[in-house]
Amino acid sequence: MLGNKEAIAYQILAMMNTKLTDIMSWDEDGKVKIKPSHQIPEHALQSIKNIKVRTDRDGNTSLEIELFDKVGVLRLAAKASGLLDNPDDNDKPSVIDVNVVAPDSRE
Question: Does the reported pTM lie above 0.85?
């Protein structure tokens, strides 16, 4: 059994590594085919946020699959791994305060 940190890391990695082709395919004519649920990898199933099935008056069915926000997940992973941390103070340029005094023109 995974600990809490490991479970969270696994979920983040699952969402990061999910590709659209894990869930669906399309041909040269643009015809989309959703894979049967048993053919979708577990990590991709965990990346699905919502599924909507709609049937119109003519009996045509449409399927809408929403995945979790990949950019948000990538941002979270980057922050957790330290990629978004501020650089060390040693890497910053020094700031020197310089006061310039004009010469006295009365001389």
Answer: no
